[in-house]
Batch of 4 targets.
Target 1
Amino acid sequence: MARRSGFAVLTMMLAVSQIWSIAAGMAAPASGGPRHVVSMNLCADELVLRLADRDQVAAVTYLAHDPRGSTVAREAMGIAVTRGLSEEIVALRPDLVVAGAFTTRTTVGLLKRVGFPLLELGVPNDFEGVRAQIRTVAAALGHPARGEAMVADLDARLARVMPAAKPLRALVMRPNAFTVAPGSLGDAVIRAAGLANVAAELGRDRFGQVPLEAAALADADLIVLDEGEPGAPSLADALLHHPVLDALRRQGRTVSIPNRLWTCPGPQVAEVVALLAAAAHQRAAR
Amino acid sequence: MNAPLPPPMRVDRAVVGPRAVVWILGLLVLVLTVASIAVGYAPFDVPAAAGDLIAGRTTLPALVLWELRLPRALLGGLVGFSLGLTGAAMQGYLRNPLADPGILGISSAAALGAVGVFYGGFAASLSLALPLGGIAGAAVAALALNLVAARGGTTLGLILAGVALSSLAGAMTALALNLSPNPYAALEIVFWVMGSLADRSMDHVWLCLPLMALGWGLMLSTARALDALTLGEDTATSLGFHLVSVRLRLVTGAALAVGSGVAVSGAIGFVGLVVPHLVRPMVGARPGASLWPSGLAGAALMLAADLGVRLLAMRPELKLGVVTALVGAPFLIVLLLRERGRGA
Amino acid sequence: MSLTIAALDVRLGGRAILSDITLSLERGTLVGLVGPNGAGKTTLLRTLAGSVAPSKGRVDLDGMPLKGISRDTRAKRIAVFFQGAGAGWPMRVRDIVALGRLPHRRAFGGLDGADHAAIDRAMARTDVTRFAERTEPTLSTGERMRVLLARALAVEAEWLLADEPITALDPAHQLDAMTMLRSVALAGTGVVAVLHDITLAARFCDRIVVLGAGRLVADGRPDVALTDRLLADAFGVTACRGAGPDGTAYILPWSRSGPHPEDIDAAFPHQP
């Protein structure tokens, strides 16, 4: 027993000393941006992979590789993968860690204490926030020009969208019947397409899930679902194929927008606005 | 004897008693089913919707009534009946007042079977695979328990075996969910372990109903044998019962009923434990007579619990298993203390 | 009208419990099955009841092999009383006795008039009518035995096989039970009772069958089967003999016979 606890203490000491030596031996990133970027959540992955050089990126999360859930699955191919654990991140010796607002607080706290340069991304509520976030990440990566280009591209695409003439009522249904809360980025996207967010009508703060009853009885003109076949099954995805939603689909009320486009802020928001506006025109035409 | 009575009726409590209980409980289940249909998250005119439904008009309220309210109420009744009936049958057969499909690990094993089928993708090609998976899991557990029970031993031994089985099945369920490539899967263990009737559909009802009904039939056919078994196996044999057939019918029936129920609603515990105890004093403590009443009382309990879950207006919705555990676990503790007092 | 066994061998768990038993029983008699502990009396009873299959030999009911008779028919024709734990649930005495009518059940239906009459008769015979409405856990051991005996009587079968029906009863009820079994036998039922009390067995039974170490040792009327020699060899006791006030002979085991310092259990004859 004593030997085992002694062994544990020794291992811990080695680990701690290694972390400190890495931190001490780290120089500030050379000009031209960081060379070992590690991103710790899916939304960070998406921005980093789009804005950085391929050899700048040391690792992304495993979620980036899922073609169903990630918009950068192709770009992520061949990049190393982490599960967001402290030891993995430390072993990669990053010179920039990009984390999200909901990344595990203990991991973030440890990384800060050890002294890795950390960029924490918030959750933007509107398009201006998205633009600011793109610029921040691009600057941190040492490619501010790319950031500007992406923002310009986003704006151009938004400008091309013709919002719906009549403000049709739209309800977004994501896995587990989560919807888009009023005042969030998704809400701004819906309004940009010229639609009204039904979630705002549904009484209490619909941050969370919409009961399917309420979704059906809300009599929305457009119900936004991901109608693609799920890769691996889950109850969350199965819910979106409930017979009541199937019936609404037969009534022509649904429009399919891949769920992954709603997950993270980024250039894809313009695509969502465009898809919504197109669907609204189609529906209005009927 | 007494005043003259019309010949077919017997003034005998042993005959009228259980029958009256069945009628009363049946009425209760009916009332609760109607209440369950009337209560939900989005109010609408239920009678008007019912009218629309019957007339074939596809209005939104009619749609919600048929696709959401009705399945939820029906499943509450069906799953509750299965759990109550199985609990009564197992308590009668094992001569053990603590027997219950949840405690004995049958529900957990059924959940494991269903999880394996669902997350393995087999239910996509054949929807019947889901209840079959649950039934397979339940059958394995029931057979294992039968082996333990057949070796004799104490109440405690059987319950411990059940607890071990339950823990093992739960751990393997968590493992299976973690291994699933779908990122939502790992969080869904709460549904499988605690159970819920939220957002079920008529598909689920059609899926589990035939198999459940078969299971009920098998278990109900052992009613008289269960009565005879109160005197011991030798006496039951001498009264003309084929014990191997009885055991087979019970195990198969329990697996069918519990397995298909868990596959569509998750593992909901304690219903099968509590309900036979409530019903027993009303039917003279005969195990065979307690089967139908326990089933109906189980249905009533489930419907009432599900009503409670929705009236509590908590988002996210409280899982049904939480409510039944809040009622059932104290009940179990009281039972255990009474058993110890009796020196069982 | 007969229950016969021919050249019966029964092996259970690898051990020979019964060897080469041949027996022919008639209805209308009270047969006492006696023998030292472990002689195989309960096993013989269970073989007669059909719950144990013989390894060799056969059991015939009215000339037909017992195993060829359907369960239902056998249940109606042979009633069995086993010592066992009582019902695990607080069932009413009346309901327990009513279980004896299960072999006569119809597919859907409760108990009819004939059933209730049989139940009443059975309860009257064992003197348990006055606790018809009490529940089983409230009974004393003796009362419970009488209730279970009533259950066996309620079957009203051609044969009644009873395993130690009077063991837990007080003397008054023992005498009542033996008298009752005798009257049941005289009314036409074939009664076979495993008894430990040689005195009562000799006094009330028409016929005594003695088993020793799995073999048939004696079979006949009490005065013929229970000789002093047999009592010494099979039971290891000597007896006092006399006659009661009405002239009936009685046998009273009095002391051990011969040098047997240890109690030998016939089931394990080779233990020191």
Target 2
Amino acid sequence: MSLCNLIAIGSLPDGPARKLLLSGKGTALHKSPTGIRPIVTLVPCGQCTSHAIATEYKAQIQEICGDKQFMVVSYGCEIVSHLVRHQLEMDQSKVMIKVDVKNAFNEIDPAAIIKVVRDEPPDLLPYVLFLLAMSSVDIIFHYSRAGKTRVHKMTTGVPQGGSLSSAPFDMGIAPSIRRAQITHPTASIYLIADDNTCRSDCHSQDDHVTSC
Amino acid sequence: MDPHNPGILKTLSVAVQTARAKYVIIARDRLTLDTVPLVPFINSLLPVPPPPYLLYMFFFLITTVPHTDRILKAMDRHILNGDMLKARRSSKGSGVANIGEASIQSKLRSLYPSRPDDRPVPDLLEARRQSVDHLTICTSWSRSVVHRPALQQSLSGHIARPPRGYYLNHEPL
């Protein structure tokens, strides 16, 4: 518990101990049609700390992410699915587009996340700095059947998987989504992490995509 | 195929039709009882079929389908969902990619872009100041342990055990 507290308050200095605590076990899953989805599992201390922080600050994280982000809502995927179907059936003059950002989790700039966290929930700042503002962490991929191990350095982005992986990402993209919504007030935007679905008129879709 | 000589196409078609007819005849002779047997089994014993367990083993010896039910169920599920690619992959194994393959390695490498410089450390001084502030809070927690009434020594020198549920209510997470 003391070690988890030290991780949560970000008091551990940058060095081998921190790297060991934040190193994750990677699993490369097949992703249709020919892609790879790397899932990262943190060491138990990091996982426990992430879960405790996500539980404790759930309300603040939801508030920062905004009402367009359904990743932090229970049954968010089901809600968006039914909402989109309902809206398409109600008004068939509107169109729905889906914006897919390639490798979004691994390539988001940590500075964007740190900026949001510094402005809005400062309680999370030490942990986010501990997670993102120090030296790179290693993601260790091991495939036992072939006996192969590969180590990749994570210099940008947040690890995909784990209890608190999507929360920093969702907070980091929240300002962009707010700007897009202000620029296009008639468009309806729904997000599930990096999956962006937008419903609006045909002529404003291109502008919305550009804004995102 | 020579475009100036369409006769080749006709020859090929005849050959394919002939082969099909030949295989149909063989299949009907060997696998069905459509035709009357030529010999009425008077010169030899009737063939005895093998017992069921041998048939079972023979089936798994000649078949190329994995005999684990889990894989077949997974294939069935993916086919029902219309995802033929996943169905094909599930016939070979799990959904975990083999990182020993060169194509998987290159894909993984592209997913983790490397920068020449390591992560920037924005406002390191502020980060350290934050840590120091929180360390103070942590120290105050540890001091509070000393002042817990449940842990004070009694007059006889015995340290009293805290009541049930004390740590659940008072221990900071």
Target 3
Amino acid sequence: MKQSNGTKVFFIVCFVLLTGYYLSFTVMNWWAERHIASLPENEQVEYRLQNQERLNNLRARKLNFGLDLQGGMYVTLELATHQLIAELARDQADDVFSDVLANAFQTARESGTDVINEFISEFERRDSNARLSRYFHMNTDDLTRASSNDEVRAYLDRQRNAAVDRAVEIIRNRIDRFGVTEPSIVRAGSNRIVVELPGIDDDADRVRNLLRGTARLEFRLMANPNELRSSFNRVAQIFDVREEIAAEDEDGEPEIRVSNELRELILDIGGASVIFGYVNVADTARVNELLNRDAVRRALPSNVELMYSARPERLTQDGPRNFLALLGVRTQIELTGEVITDARPSFDPQTNRPEVSMTMNREGARRWSMITAANIDRPVAIILDDLVYSFPVVRTQITEGRSSISGLGGLSEAEDLVNILLSGALPAPLEILEERTVGATLGEASIRAGFNSAMLGLFLVVIFMVVYYRGGGAIANIALLLNIIFILGILAAFKATLTLPGIAGIVLTIGMAVDANVLIFDRIREEQRAGKSLLAAIDSGYSNAMSAILDANITTFLTAVILFSFGMGPIKGFAVTLMAGIVASLFSAIIITRVIIDWLTRGKNIKVSFG
Amino acid sequence: MRLFEDPKIEFINNRKIGYIISGLLVLASFGAIIFKGLNFGIDFRGGTEIVVSFEGTSPNVVEIRNVLSEPLASTPEVKTFGEDVIIRTDSGLEGNALRTAILSTLNQQYSDNPSSIIKLDIVGPRFAEDLRDAAAMSIFFALGIIFVYVLIRFKKWYFSLGAVAALFHDVIITLGIFTLFYEIMPFSLDIDQAIIAAFLTIVGYSLNDTVVVFDRIRENSLIFKTEAYDRMVNRSINNTLSRTVVTSMTTLIAVGVLFLFGGEVLKGLSFALILGVILGTYSSIFVASALLVDLQLKKAEKS
């Protein structure tokens, strides 16, 4: 008996030391933060600089608080694979390609399968001899005209893989430039990225734009104003709807009223200009629907498409600022963002409004020089992510490769734009699948509430145990307290995150942890009632209760494991604390209490009462 | 202190009452679920949930709902969230636009009571589908694993059946209560990921309870070989009664404290856990053990 207790004591000491070690960082970090907070403001920064390495080490190894406790933003992004495929085929794409891709996208979306697989199967369904290589082999050395469809599939998978990795890097760049402490940007699966940004609260809007902005910068020439003007009437006519409102009027002819939805939605400016018309922000969806018809495309000049301006403006002096200009822009892209080597926020010397000045590389500067020389007194559209930010008129030839983007809302927008331009364009757009933001105040309130509940719950259970099980109850309480410390230690050791449901899990564990002891103590009481001596009752109490304890806890552990594997985010935190709680409570209930009881009853011959 | 020194309560003989009560509760729950429908949170339905905190007291929720209907182009659900207000909408507006729309409208309407967004959750429709699948799978797997585990440990299939029946019973009734009391409770009874986590925990806890009784039944069946089965089961329940009540009490104390002091975010979760503890204890006796007896008696009759 003494020997096995020796091993037990050894294990207990190990556990306690390990836990102490892992939790020490959290404690030291907390203490350090308090110390810094107590210093006068000016000394704080210096202290941080001097002790930077030590503080960073503490911060990296302390117990992680989930975003729902510290406040911050959690986003799941998905790469638009179908757009990546379209981008890879670029100029080789034909109508069949677009059609198949669109169908594959729909099918994949509905049934939750992989777009790449759907794309290839759809193609093969239409034409079993189709060679997909003809769409992609021009842009890469990996494929030739003769490559099989399987090789194309492998190529697309590789490209997507690389694209997601690149997207992670680009996002990391943007977040770093933005300035977030301890961001976490990780890949999740074949085409998703999970971004965790502690501390982001009011800036959530800016961050959302940073995460999604593809940063596709284009310089394009604009439509001929006269051509655009005449096309306006042609386009509008398509939407004329004639209806008879009266059978006959005085002249014996039926009265016809003509209504035109498009004219109601697009405000005509009257003269010839690169502006097609103005659209209220609320009507843009409907206008897009109307303009999407083939008839409209035929009515517009063949090298022109319509694009919205980026910022809403007001049409009358006191009117609301919610009209977007619809602009006629040439389809040909003269210059892209790839030539930009540097960008910085600046202020327009005349208007004092913020803008972004860009510098181009040599090739870009050369092309820009040619473009500006050929288009004096004509506007050039500066387009970012399919929105026209500005269309300044070229006054002189620009030879130094400089340009600027104006029409921005404020300095922060300029800074974010610089960020995106310098970090690089995303290979394909990222869609936000899920976003959770918790404000810092709510986080603090949650921590307080969780902590208070845990303390109060602990207090009440402790009292109950002593009242009901007397001496045995007091021992069980010691085990319970150690239990909680162990749970936190396990979490810290495995770098798990403590979330609000996690704290709930700890509170729940407090309630359930006593169960094992209850089983043992009740059994001991029963054995005593049956006439056994104290020591014998303790022995048989522990051994008889064992099977029930193990069965019960293993089943709960299994459900926690299932929760862990299927749950996401804070629920994972709940599952982890539950599992840690079960392990810790089993250890403390079976081993620790046994050691203490044995030490008291055998060693010190104290008659421990079990109530 | 002793609560149940050596109880000799007649549980099994009165199991018919238990069946009737359980039967009614399960039927009522099924009815509620079928006719009223389960209320899923945005985790499983998709949509946006925003918690808005006002500097002063929060305005009336109906008022807020009306004020926001226009800018959002659809009527949002507005409820109280502790002292704050929670707004749920399926409006097509995306993140930034939605935030701006809500904040500017509210600050315009209540210009002397500025508001701020303290919590924002957006779940896209496809992601909601993923979460639904994950939740369904986890419940399915959990029940399956439990059936197998109990079968292995207790060797006879009616132990497994009794255990799983008790679990079903607990989960269905909890779901039923959530559905029935949906508008009545001052806190959110939406079924979201946290509630599913609570259900799985309830499953774990209820099983915990059931297994302790089963374990005693197995032990007693070896000791009291000549005793009638139903007497032996009754004895087992009485043997473990003290433990059952005490553990239920300590767990209820813990989750009760969580419910009262744990903050608004945890209200739904802790409410589910409270129901689970109460039902779990009840079902170990009046569903699992009772079924055990009846299945055994039927088997005895056949042979």
Target 4
Amino acid sequence: MGTRRRARRGRVIFEVFRQERAGQAFQHAGSFVAPGPEFAEAYAREFYGRRGESEALWVVPRDEIAEIGEFVDELHRNYHRVDGYSLREKLGRARERAGTATSAG
Amino acid sequence: MAERVNEQELLLQLADDELVVGWRDSEWTGIAPFLEEDVALSSIAQNEIGHARAAYELLADDADALAFDRTPGDYVCAPLVELRLVPDWARTIARRVLYEAADELRLEQLMASADDAVAGLAAKIEREEAYHRMHAHMWAERLASEPRYQEAVEELFPYALGVLEPGLRPALADRIGLAEVEAVERGVHVDEWPALWQEMTEVRRSVPGAAW
């Protein structure tokens, strides 16, 4: 929390997530400051909705979002990570052994 | 008392009101109390001018000519919208609240018009005004206990009554919660009007027929 920007007294920072088309995932669109939830709704409509660019919006006070930003990996155990192995290379070798290699690899 | 006017005249009143209130609210662009409000109010101002244009288009083939080529005395806007309120935020919000309340009553009347084009335009405008009212109400609630805001509402209330025909005024008094008083009628312009007219029509007067 320490490094997060804080709003001035009486104001709240809201984060806006925007869904562009029905069924799509919501994506972060931006943030703004408002004196309270009613103002936030009005501003969100003005800034992210009035041109018909959104199917729906999520408007969330920034302080209500749990931010997790530190990930301990002291021993660099890269085998915990999916990018620890190159599946593409392994598959290629296996195909060579089986004699089914394709030009696309 | 103002006499009953026909629908064309009502539509011209609406168009002039929307044009001028939009112009006045846009005077806050860049200097509103905080950035978000600056953007929101500017956007509302832009909407109002858009409503004016749509109404002028129903009334004339050349909307710009109707909007900008008249003499100051030919405009039929209400004194409420002509007042220059920058930099007084309390009075600006009071005008927004009063104007939107009056405009809602007027639009209800126009939506019942026998003329489909008029009724349709009124319904379109009303759908956008709903968000303007939401903006006005949240500010009204926020400022409800501020004496400056209350004084501004009382000061501007007679002007707001003048936006409407006499028949609709009791409904406005009811919505605002004040007793009906003598209205500041259309037809007489406020002292700040000529300067605003000068500014609004400057381009058209320097380049006749200019379009943008």
